[in-house]
Amino acid sequence: MFKKVRKAVIPAAGLGTRFLPATKAVPKEMIPIVDKPTLQYIIEEALASGIEDILIITGRTKRAIEDHFDRSIELELNLEKGGKTKDLEMVREIAGIRVHYVRQKEPRGLGHAILCAKQFVGDEPFAVLLGDDVVDGEVPALKQLIDVYDKTGSSVLGVQEVPLEKVSSYGIVASEPTEDARTFTVTDMVEKPPVAEAPSRLAVLGRYVINPEIFPILEVTQPGRGNEIQLTDALQVLAKEQAMYAYNFVGRRYDVGDKQGFLEATVEMALKRDDLRDKFLTYLQDIVAKETAK
Protein backbone atom coordinates (compact mmCIF):
# COMPACT_ATOMS: atom_id res chain seq x y z
CA MET A 1 0.00 0.00 0.00
CA PHE A 2 1.53 3.29 -1.10
CA LYS A 3 1.31 6.52 0.85
CA LYS A 4 -1.65 8.70 0.00
CA VAL A 5 -1.07 11.86 -2.03
CA ARG A 6 -2.37 14.46 0.44
CA LYS A 7 -0.31 17.56 -0.32
CA ALA A 8 -0.03 19.82 -3.35
CA VAL A 9 2.47 22.51 -4.26
CA ILE A 10 1.51 25.42 -6.52
CA PRO A 11 4.39 27.65 -7.67
CA ALA A 12 3.16 31.24 -7.99
CA ALA A 13 6.27 33.39 -7.69
CA GLY A 14 6.63 34.39 -11.36
CA LEU A 15 6.36 38.01 -12.47
CA GLY A 16 3.82 37.37 -15.25
CA THR A 17 5.49 39.72 -17.69
CA ARG A 18 3.47 38.35 -20.63
CA PHE A 19 0.39 40.03 -19.13
CA LEU A 20 1.83 43.46 -18.46
CA PRO A 21 0.58 46.04 -17.65
CA ALA A 22 -2.16 44.13 -15.77
CA THR A 23 0.42 42.19 -13.75
CA LYS A 24 2.31 45.31 -12.62
CA ALA A 25 0.08 45.39 -9.52
CA VAL A 26 -2.03 42.21 -9.79
CA PRO A 27 -0.46 38.73 -9.61
CA LYS A 28 -1.05 36.86 -12.85
CA GLU A 29 -2.57 34.01 -10.82
CA MET A 30 -5.30 36.40 -9.65
CA ILE A 31 -6.42 37.56 -13.09
CA PRO A 32 -9.99 36.24 -13.35
CA ILE A 33 -11.40 33.87 -15.92
CA VAL A 34 -14.94 35.28 -16.02
CA ASP A 35 -15.30 36.03 -12.27
CA LYS A 36 -12.94 33.54 -10.63
CA PRO A 37 -9.16 33.97 -10.26
CA THR A 38 -7.11 31.55 -12.31
CA LEU A 39 -5.47 30.23 -9.14
CA GLN A 40 -8.84 29.29 -7.69
CA TYR A 41 -9.55 26.98 -10.64
CA ILE A 42 -6.24 25.26 -9.92
CA ILE A 43 -6.96 24.91 -6.20
CA GLU A 44 -10.48 23.58 -6.84
CA GLU A 45 -8.96 20.91 -9.11
CA ALA A 46 -6.57 19.93 -6.32
CA LEU A 47 -9.36 19.68 -3.75
CA ALA A 48 -11.55 17.68 -6.14
CA SER A 49 -8.62 15.28 -6.54
CA GLY A 50 -8.47 14.52 -2.82
CA ILE A 51 -5.71 16.96 -1.82
CA GLU A 52 -5.94 18.04 1.83
CA ASP A 53 -3.19 20.66 2.22
CA ILE A 54 -1.91 23.15 -0.34
CA LEU A 55 1.35 25.08 -0.33
CA ILE A 56 1.61 28.12 -2.59
CA ILE A 57 5.13 29.29 -3.43
CA THR A 58 4.85 33.07 -3.60
CA GLY A 59 7.05 36.12 -4.06
CA ARG A 60 7.10 39.54 -2.49
CA THR A 61 4.52 40.98 -4.91
CA LYS A 62 1.90 38.28 -4.28
CA ARG A 63 0.09 39.55 -1.17
CA ALA A 64 -3.22 39.55 -3.06
CA ILE A 65 -3.10 35.74 -3.18
CA GLU A 66 -2.94 35.47 0.60
CA ASP A 67 -5.71 38.05 0.99
CA HIS A 68 -7.99 36.13 -1.37
CA PHE A 69 -7.79 32.90 0.64
CA ASP A 70 -8.00 34.69 3.99
CA ARG A 71 -11.15 35.73 5.83
CA SER A 72 -12.60 39.18 5.12
CA ILE A 73 -14.75 39.98 8.14
CA GLU A 74 -15.91 43.33 6.75
CA LEU A 75 -17.04 41.71 3.50
CA GLU A 76 -18.78 38.87 5.33
CA LEU A 77 -20.68 41.29 7.57
CA ASN A 78 -21.69 43.37 4.56
CA LEU A 79 -22.98 40.32 2.70
CA GLU A 80 -24.81 39.07 5.78
CA LYS A 81 -26.44 42.45 6.32
CA GLY A 82 -27.53 42.55 2.68
CA GLY A 83 -29.04 39.08 2.84
CA LYS A 84 -26.65 37.78 0.17
CA THR A 85 -26.51 34.29 1.63
CA LYS A 86 -25.12 32.54 -1.45
CA ASP A 87 -22.24 35.00 -1.81
CA LEU A 88 -21.55 34.77 1.92
CA GLU A 89 -21.29 30.99 1.77
CA MET A 90 -18.94 31.27 -1.22
CA VAL A 91 -16.46 33.65 0.43
CA ARG A 92 -16.47 31.61 3.65
CA GLU A 93 -15.82 28.43 1.69
CA ILE A 94 -12.83 30.06 -0.03
CA ALA A 95 -11.44 31.20 3.33
CA GLY A 96 -11.85 27.69 4.72
CA ILE A 97 -9.38 26.09 2.31
CA ARG A 98 -6.21 24.87 4.04
CA VAL A 99 -3.60 26.95 2.23
CA HIS A 100 -0.02 27.50 3.40
CA TYR A 101 2.59 29.85 1.98
CA VAL A 102 6.35 30.11 1.61
CA ARG A 103 8.26 32.72 -0.32
CA GLN A 104 10.77 32.01 -3.04
CA LYS A 105 13.10 34.89 -2.21
CA GLU A 106 14.91 34.95 -5.55
CA PRO A 107 13.84 33.85 -9.04
CA ARG A 108 15.94 30.71 -9.47
CA GLY A 109 13.56 28.59 -11.53
CA LEU A 110 10.81 26.03 -11.11
CA GLY A 111 13.15 23.42 -9.61
CA HIS A 112 14.19 25.84 -6.88
CA ALA A 113 10.53 26.74 -6.23
CA ILE A 114 9.73 23.06 -5.66
CA LEU A 115 12.77 22.73 -3.39
CA CYS A 116 11.24 25.48 -1.22
CA ALA A 117 8.46 22.97 -0.41
CA LYS A 118 10.81 20.36 1.10
CA GLN A 119 9.82 20.90 4.74
CA PHE A 120 6.12 21.09 3.89
CA VAL A 121 6.21 17.83 1.93
CA GLY A 122 8.44 15.78 4.21
CA ASP A 123 8.70 12.13 3.14
CA GLU A 124 5.36 11.96 1.31
CA PRO A 125 4.50 11.88 -2.39
CA PHE A 126 3.09 15.22 -3.48
CA ALA A 127 1.32 16.90 -6.37
CA VAL A 128 2.52 19.90 -8.33
CA LEU A 129 0.08 22.07 -10.27
CA LEU A 130 1.34 24.93 -12.43
CA GLY A 131 -0.89 27.97 -12.66
CA ASP A 132 -0.50 28.54 -16.41
CA ASP A 133 -2.53 25.42 -17.18
CA VAL A 134 -6.26 25.23 -16.47
CA VAL A 135 -7.85 21.89 -17.33
CA ASP A 136 -11.59 21.37 -17.72
CA GLY A 137 -13.01 17.86 -17.76
CA GLU A 138 -15.35 15.39 -16.11
CA VAL A 139 -12.52 13.88 -14.02
CA PRO A 140 -9.93 16.35 -12.65
CA ALA A 141 -6.61 16.01 -14.44
CA LEU A 142 -4.72 15.65 -11.17
CA LYS A 143 -7.09 12.91 -10.00
CA GLN A 144 -6.23 10.94 -13.14
CA LEU A 145 -2.53 11.14 -12.26
CA ILE A 146 -3.14 10.20 -8.63
CA ASP A 147 -5.04 7.11 -9.79
CA VAL A 148 -1.91 6.02 -11.69
CA TYR A 149 0.26 6.71 -8.63
CA ASP A 150 -2.07 4.65 -6.43
CA LYS A 151 -1.48 1.66 -8.73
CA THR A 152 2.26 2.06 -9.22
CA GLY A 153 3.74 4.08 -6.36
CA SER A 154 5.80 5.91 -8.97
CA SER A 155 6.06 9.55 -9.99
CA VAL A 156 3.61 10.50 -12.74
CA LEU A 157 3.82 13.33 -15.27
CA GLY A 158 0.67 14.74 -16.82
CA VAL A 159 1.11 14.93 -20.59
CA GLN A 160 -0.81 15.60 -23.77
CA GLU A 161 0.26 15.59 -27.41
CA VAL A 162 1.07 19.01 -28.84
CA PRO A 163 1.59 20.00 -32.50
CA LEU A 164 5.13 19.31 -33.69
CA GLU A 165 5.82 23.00 -34.26
CA LYS A 166 5.12 23.71 -30.56
CA VAL A 167 7.39 21.11 -28.92
CA SER A 168 10.05 23.78 -28.37
CA SER A 169 7.76 25.44 -25.82
CA TYR A 170 7.51 22.45 -23.46
CA GLY A 171 9.32 19.72 -21.64
CA ILE A 172 9.01 16.68 -23.92
CA VAL A 173 9.19 13.06 -22.78
CA ALA A 174 10.70 10.04 -24.45
CA SER A 175 8.72 6.99 -23.45
CA GLU A 176 7.74 3.39 -24.00
CA PRO A 177 4.13 2.15 -24.13
CA THR A 178 2.51 0.09 -21.38
CA GLU A 179 -0.56 -2.13 -21.37
CA ASP A 180 -2.69 0.97 -20.76
CA ALA A 181 -2.93 3.08 -23.93
CA ARG A 182 -2.82 6.34 -21.97
CA THR A 183 0.12 5.42 -19.69
CA PHE A 184 3.78 5.46 -20.76
CA THR A 185 7.04 4.56 -19.07
CA VAL A 186 9.33 7.61 -19.08
CA THR A 187 12.81 6.88 -20.43
CA ASP A 188 14.06 10.45 -20.84
CA MET A 189 12.99 14.10 -20.90
CA VAL A 190 14.17 17.15 -22.81
CA GLU A 191 13.35 20.73 -21.84
CA LYS A 192 12.13 22.78 -24.85
CA PRO A 193 13.97 20.83 -27.57
CA PRO A 194 14.37 22.03 -31.15
CA VAL A 195 11.71 20.48 -33.38
CA ALA A 196 14.26 18.21 -35.08
CA GLU A 197 15.48 16.85 -31.74
CA ALA A 198 12.17 16.27 -29.96
CA PRO A 199 11.83 12.62 -28.91
CA SER A 200 8.01 12.77 -29.18
CA ARG A 201 5.07 15.16 -29.12
CA LEU A 202 4.14 14.27 -25.54
CA ALA A 203 4.48 17.50 -23.60
CA VAL A 204 4.46 17.84 -19.81
CA LEU A 205 1.55 20.17 -19.12
CA GLY A 206 1.66 21.47 -15.61
CA ARG A 207 0.50 18.47 -13.58
CA TYR A 208 2.79 16.14 -11.64
CA VAL A 209 2.75 13.59 -8.83
CA ILE A 210 6.31 13.30 -7.52
CA ASN A 211 7.98 11.09 -4.97
CA PRO A 212 10.00 12.88 -2.24
CA GLU A 213 13.29 11.44 -3.52
CA ILE A 214 13.24 14.44 -5.89
CA PHE A 215 14.47 16.76 -3.10
CA PRO A 216 18.06 15.48 -2.65
CA ILE A 217 18.35 15.57 -6.43
CA LEU A 218 17.14 19.17 -6.60
CA GLU A 219 19.64 20.14 -3.92
CA VAL A 220 22.54 19.24 -6.21
CA THR A 221 20.95 20.17 -9.56
CA GLN A 222 23.01 22.85 -11.28
CA PRO A 223 21.39 25.80 -13.07
CA GLY A 224 20.54 25.00 -16.67
CA ARG A 225 18.52 26.85 -19.31
CA GLY A 226 18.10 30.50 -18.37
CA ASN A 227 20.58 30.03 -15.48
CA GLU A 228 17.69 28.52 -13.49
CA ILE A 229 17.33 25.24 -11.63
CA GLN A 230 15.06 23.23 -13.91
CA LEU A 231 12.59 20.72 -12.52
CA THR A 232 12.92 18.75 -15.75
CA ASP A 233 16.64 18.18 -15.10
CA ALA A 234 15.92 16.72 -11.65
CA LEU A 235 13.06 14.58 -12.95
CA GLN A 236 15.39 13.25 -15.64
CA VAL A 237 17.76 12.02 -12.91
CA LEU A 238 14.89 10.59 -10.83
CA ALA A 239 13.61 8.64 -13.85
CA LYS A 240 16.97 6.87 -14.04
CA GLU A 241 16.82 5.93 -10.34
CA GLN A 242 13.22 4.69 -10.14
CA ALA A 243 10.24 4.00 -12.37
CA MET A 244 8.41 7.06 -13.69
CA TYR A 245 5.28 7.27 -15.80
CA ALA A 246 3.64 9.79 -18.10
CA TYR A 247 -0.15 9.82 -18.28
CA ASN A 248 -1.97 11.30 -21.26
CA PHE A 249 -4.77 12.88 -19.25
CA VAL A 250 -8.25 13.57 -20.59
CA GLY A 251 -9.53 17.13 -20.49
CA ARG A 252 -9.61 20.45 -22.32
CA ARG A 253 -6.40 22.20 -21.36
CA TYR A 254 -6.05 25.96 -21.60
CA ASP A 255 -2.65 27.66 -21.63
CA VAL A 256 -3.76 30.72 -19.67
CA GLY A 257 -0.19 32.04 -19.56
CA ASP A 258 -0.71 32.89 -23.23
CA LYS A 259 -3.14 35.64 -24.27
CA GLN A 260 -4.84 33.46 -26.89
CA GLY A 261 -5.27 30.61 -24.40
CA PHE A 262 -6.56 32.99 -21.75
CA LEU A 263 -9.18 34.42 -24.12
CA GLU A 264 -10.25 30.93 -25.19
CA ALA A 265 -10.66 29.90 -21.54
CA THR A 266 -12.69 33.02 -20.75
CA VAL A 267 -15.07 32.52 -23.67
CA GLU A 268 -15.54 28.78 -23.19
CA MET A 269 -15.93 29.00 -19.40
CA ALA A 270 -18.53 31.73 -19.86
CA LEU A 271 -20.45 29.54 -22.31
CA LYS A 272 -20.62 26.80 -19.66
CA ARG A 273 -22.42 29.12 -17.28
CA ASP A 274 -26.23 28.92 -17.29
CA ASP A 275 -26.47 32.53 -16.11
CA LEU A 276 -24.32 33.81 -19.00
CA ARG A 277 -24.58 31.40 -21.90
CA ASP A 278 -27.63 32.56 -23.87
CA LYS A 279 -26.96 36.32 -23.92
CA PHE A 280 -23.23 35.87 -24.36
CA LEU A 281 -23.68 33.39 -27.23
CA THR A 282 -26.03 35.79 -28.99
CA TYR A 283 -23.45 38.55 -28.56
CA LEU A 284 -20.66 36.35 -29.97
CA GLN A 285 -22.78 35.36 -32.96
CA ASP A 286 -23.51 39.02 -33.70
CA ILE A 287 -19.83 39.95 -33.42
CA VAL A 288 -18.78 37.09 -35.72
CA ALA A 289 -21.44 38.06 -38.27
CA LYS A 290 -20.27 41.68 -38.29
CA GLU A 291 -16.61 40.72 -38.58
CA THR A 292 -17.33 38.23 -41.37
CA ALA A 293 -19.27 40.87 -43.29
CA LYS A 294 -16.36 43.33 -43.30
How would you characterize this protein structure?
This protein is an alpha/beta fold and 294 residues long. The chain contains 11 helices and 13 strands. The strands form 3 sheets. Strands 5-4-1-6-11-8-12-10-9 form a 9-stranded mixed β-sheet. It has a two-stranded antiparallel sheet with strand order 2-3. A two-stranded antiparallel ribbon has the order 7-13. Strand 9 and strand 10 (183-191) form a beta hairpin. The radius of gyration is 20 Å and the shape is globular. The chain starts with 6 loop residues before the first strand and ends with a helix.
Please give the structural blueprint.
Blueprint (H helix, E strand, L loop, with lengths): L6 E5 L20 E2 L2 E2 H11 L4 E6 L4 H6 L4 H9 L3 H11 L3 E5 L6 H6 L2 H4 L4 E4 L3 E4 L4 H12 L2 E7 L9 E7 L5 E9 L10 E9 L3 H7 L10 H11 L2 E5 L3 E4 L3 H13 L5 H17 L1
Parallel strand pairs: 1-4, 1-6, 4-5, 8-12
Antiparallel strand pairs: 2-3, 6-11, 7-13, 8-11, 9-10, 10-12
Helix pairs in contact: 3-4
List keywords for this structure.
nine-stranded mixed sheet; alpha/beta; single chain; 294 residues; two-stranded antiparallel sheet; globular; 23% strand; 36% helix
Question: Which structural class do you get from the secondary structure elements?
Answer: alpha/beta
Instruction: Identify the overall geometry.
Output: globular
Strand order of the largest sheet: 5-4-1-6-11-8-12-10-9
Helix content: 25-40%
Tally of DSSP β-strands: 13
| Low-pLDDT residue intervals, each spanning 5 or more residues | none
- How much of the sequence lies in strands comes to 15-25%
Number of helices: 11
**Helix-strand string:** EEEHEHHHEHHEEHEEEEHHEEHH
Report mean pLDDT, rounded to a whole number: 92
**C-alpha end-to-end distance:** 63 Å
Largest sheet: 9 strands, mixed
